[in-house]
């Protein structure tokens, strides 16, 4: 009897301990979902770093990976960036590659979406603020906790369905792309097992907009395979649209009138940037003997379209980026900095942010009292948020560029290109990142982390609480412009 009593007491204490841990996590999710999200994201990076540091993760010699390289690869994987300091095709063992491919999928689902799922599993329910933050990661308008929340495109009751859509759509799209790629890899001379592995790796890497390649030659091995490159472009395009757009199109793809302003702005801005980017590469690189100069018009046009897609955050390239003209590097910088859609696997400041800035400029030029798009008025607080995102993004890029330029004494255009690629989680590189010293790898890793987590989420996490001000100060207008 005494032994049974001790056993029961132990079970009660254990349940009490687990309950306290769950309650503490639940309180953190409710009080600061953004901080919880960043905590989960940072924890995933640390776990991935530990796994990649194990001797079993490295191919060939059974020695552990240097900490700087393991950490950098972990950040690049979880942040779905694609920059690397080692040869991804030969450096990692099957165990290491398994860790990386799982990490790409986890990172691709988005830091806030992932945190909401984990918070639901741990606390068994999503609180109001957690649901709002989950919707914020899947809605470009960045839902705020307060009365305006009820006006957002994605209602609280739909968040659960949206989280399911994230996981299901990811697996479905990656599976379809993988099956389509297998014949091309077989035609390149690989056996069935290798073809399935390469296709699975490329499909995950493309849809998550990471840009890692499992083969030594990378996409160059399929340079003349238009089918394979087209599948890569489709996967990158779908991944960069964002889950809210996929969610909306899946429900009402036959009824464009029912699409939200976000969906219309994302599709319109994405299409415009895609066309302008392709045109810019076509014109600027048409006579470059190191890139497209030796190709016919048809091949040049296709590769320009491919490059325009990949600079949106895809990270794959069939040419050496260091061979681009400086003008083309600058165009690439701008496209990478903008990135893809909100709540997508792409990075950057997001296309809707750019669209809001242009709508504000257009409204100001016309003297209109407010911004309008597709018959809807856009609140002014969205403009304030868009300006904040651009300002903080530009600050992060500028500081990282200055530090790395001073540290390495490398050409500014190459440093700027790789820094923007890291911040926008694109993955394209001039070769600068591969040769970084250990301290430079940590600087670039921090840039990738801040770029993926998002400046708005980072600012919300650092804020201790929302301050309410019950008075207004006198208004006075400074001179601008």
Short structural summary:
This protein has 481 residues and is mainly alpha-helical. It has helices spanning 2-31, 33-53, 67-78, 94-108, 111-123, 128-137, 159-187, 192-207, 226-241, 243-252, 261-284, 297-314, 326-338, 351-366, 380-408, 412-423, 438-453, 455-462, and strands at 371-373, 376-378.
Kindly describe this structure:
- This protein is an all-alpha fold and 481 residues long.
- The protein is 64% helix and 1% strand.
- It has 18 helices and 2 strands.
- The protein has helices at residues 2-31, 33-53, 67-78, 94-108, 111-123, 128-137, 159-187, 192-207, 226-241, 243-252, 261-284, 297-314, 326-338, 351-366, 380-408, 412-423, 438-453, 455-462, and strands at residues 371-373, 376-378.
- It has a two-stranded antiparallel sheet with strand order 1-2.
- Helix 1 runs antiparallel to helix 5 (111-123).
- It is globular.
- The relative contact order is 0.10.
- The model is unreliable at 121-126 and 136-158 (pLDDT under 50).
Secondary structure topology:
Elements lengths: L1 H30 L1 H21 L13 H12 L15 H15 L2 H13 L4 H10 L21 H29 L4 H16 L18 H16 L1 H10 L8 H24 L12 H18 L11 H13 L12 H16 L4 E3 L2 E3 L1 H29 L3 H12 L14 H16 L1 H8 L19
Antiparallel strand pairs: 1-2
Give the topology string: H per helix, E per strand: HHHHHHHHHHHHHHEEHHHH
Task: Tell me, briefly, the overall form.
Answer: globular
Q: Give the strand line-up of the largest sheet.
A: 1-2
Number of strands: 2
> Mind describing the biggest β-sheet?
2 strands, antiparallel
Q: Separation of termini?
A: 84 Å
Rg is: 23 Å
Specify the number of helices: 18
Q: Identify the quaternary structure here.
A: single chain
Helix coverage percent: 55-70%
